[in-house]
């Protein structure tokens, strides 16, 4: 995505339910939360290991 500006695999990048504008990158059991900012910039906030089926609040 950083090279082309397009999301090629929508299963690895998706909108987090019950939020307005938070998205997550999925890499195996790891997750990186992010959001879009002015000028089509993507801000990565932090990463964590996901231990259950739901993303923690």
Walk me through the structure:
This protein is 0% helix and 44% strand. With 57 residues, it is mainly β. It has a domain at 10-39. It has a 4-stranded antiparallel beta sheet, with no helix packed on it. A hairpin with a 3-residue loop joins strand 3 and strand 4.
Any chance you could write out the topology, listing elements then pairs?
Layout: E1 13-15, E2 23-27, E3 30-37, E4 41-49
Antiparallel strand pairs: 1-2, 2-3, 3-4
Tertiary shape: globular
Termini separation (Å)?
A: 26 Å
Largest sheet: 4 strands, antiparallel
The computed structural class is mainly beta
Mean pLDDT: 82
Q: What is the number of helical segments per DSSP (H or I, 4+ residues)?
A: 0
Q: In what range is the share of β-strand residues?
A: 35-45%
Supply Rg: 11 Å
Runs with pLDDT <50, length 5+?
A: none
* SSE succession: EEEE
Helix content: under 10%
Trace the largest sheet across and list its strands.
1-2-3-4
Please provide the count of β strands.
Answer: 4
């Amino acid at each position: 995505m950083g090279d082309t500006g397009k999301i090629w695999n929508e299963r690895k990048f998706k909108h987090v339910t019950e939020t307005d504008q938070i998205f997550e990158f999925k890499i195996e059991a790891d997750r990186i939360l992010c959001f879009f900012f002015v000028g089509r910039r993507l801000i990565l906030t932090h990463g964590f290991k996901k231990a259950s089926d739901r993303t923690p609040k």
